[in-house]
Design brief:
4 strands; 63% helix; two-stranded antiparallel ribbon; 127 residues; mainly alpha
Length: 127
């Protein structure tokens, strides 16, 4: 690969910001990448700091995902209890009332939260 700024010089690498090949004369070296001298240095500093923050936060994200999955399971139990209660009250009346249908809605949402919690649990185990 040739240098973008000097087509006669060989590039020592690619700029982390713009991806152009840069030779030794036109490159600024950072601990984790190269930048076009006086053109992309600030962008590369920002990119490197973003990557470092993302790496530091990845363990936090996994624990938050696991916590969310357990919240979905707790919600599932609550929705089943509420749905069952509404269904029971709805069947005790002479005709099917809105209370019965509210119970069905709670049970449907309980199934949704169970599936969502299982997906989150599976995703957190894969990371």
């Amino acid at each position: 690969m040739k240098c973008f700024y000097d087509s006669t010089a060989d590039a020592i690498g690619a700029c982390k910001s713009c991806g152009r090949g840069v030779s030794l004369a036109y490159a600024t070296e950072f601990p984790k990448g190269l930048a076009c001298k006086e053109r992309c240095e600030k962008d590369v500093e920002v990119l490197i700091s973003l990557i470092e923050r993302n790496v530091a936060m990845s363990s936090t994200a996994v624990s938050l995902t696991k916590g969310s999955a357990s919240n979905f399971y707790a919600s599932f139990v609550l929705y089943v209890i509420m749905g069952g209660g509404f269904l029971w009250m709805g069947t005790r009346m002479d005709a099917l009332t809105p209370i019965f249908y509210i119970g069905l809605a709670f049970l449907g949402f309980a199934i949704y939260t169970l599936i969502r919690g299982m997906k989150l649990s599976k995703a957190s185990k894969e990371e």
